[in-house]
């Protein structure tokens, strides 16, 4: 296998543009990678994360994380990881003198900021709901017969990571046009949905990272940054994707625990003791007890715990840099750090006490009903309108007219196959916020006419 190199991996080339050498001039105070961050934060898919469930439904009182606040925190942690790693890489590779540690931090920060943009409403249950409706819809056999195996797998095993890549690369007017480095670092699963020769133990092949519709674009990106090719249309991860993953792992492990405490699902003692295990010698109970509020105590412990996990993850990455560049290392960094055992304990505890709590299960159940209901309507409306017009009824027409104008335009002018049409419908549904999905569902079902 061809070894990856940092010069290519940090490509500042943008989709559809000529190659560039990353630099900052007097007239360009932002690097190309910092511009990526800004483009993402001002984008509609990112803004929509403010009303998408992370884990817990939004309560009337108290603060819990949405996908937007979670993404901002993952980006912050990712930036720290990138800068830590970048500083050491630049010491080791003096030929990279056109880069700075901040460039590495900016790439990881931008990729981490975007890591959840493809997730549908209602948490991970939204992905399952989309997959299930295509597998069991009344038109399933008809649709399946008009698609390739890989195309059908895209729909029946819907993946938020692949949807995210699609959102970041689709030419919506000018499009985001991120750098190849940020796009590649965003992609934790550089393979396709129907890839069957998966290597057991490769974390990067646990899911998939792009739909068939974006296959050629993904190939161009992978070749541009020099990812190691493992099979046809399958590559090793961009090294910085490991840091994006670590930032996400660190945040959801620690922050979900803090949210659970805030909602009364985790006791102060439980939260404190788990975080203290991560702090190890940095845990100072006497100093902690001087803080009057239990919430503030947990906040302080959370902050220090995240810093410890950043340091541990940085060390594991640097110890495995050569194997990562060779494409032979393929594990989550947080599975190899000194704090791995306590993170596993927290995960087991969270599954039992947080992710299976009644309020989370109620939100998931509602999400299934809403997404199933909307997809049931729009799969029929779109298929009958464009591919079986004799069945296109007034009911379907009414629903169709409620689609956004840009979706209708793309259906009319860009979708040439049932697969492409169905992807546009999943674009619409997965891009909705929790509130907008519920509102449209209630209107179409005649539940709320006010």
UniProtKB/TrEMBL annotation:
GO terms for molecular function: dGTPase activity. One of its GO terms (biological process) is dGTP catabolic process. Gene3D superfamilies: eoxyguanosinetriphosphate triphosphohydrolase domain-like (1.10.3550.10), Hypothetical protein af1432 (1.10.3210.10), putative deoxyguanosinetriphosphate triphosphohydrolase like domain (1.10.3410.10). Transmembrane segments: none annotated. InterPro entries: dGTP_triP_hydro_central_sf, dGTP_triphosphohydrolase_C, dGTPase, dGTPase-like, HD/PDEase_dom, HD_domain, PHydrolase_assoc_dom. Keywords: Hydrolase. Residues 63-262 form the HD/PDEase domain. This is dGTPase. The lineage of its organism: Bacteria, Pseudomonadati, Bacteroidota, Cytophagia, Cytophagales.
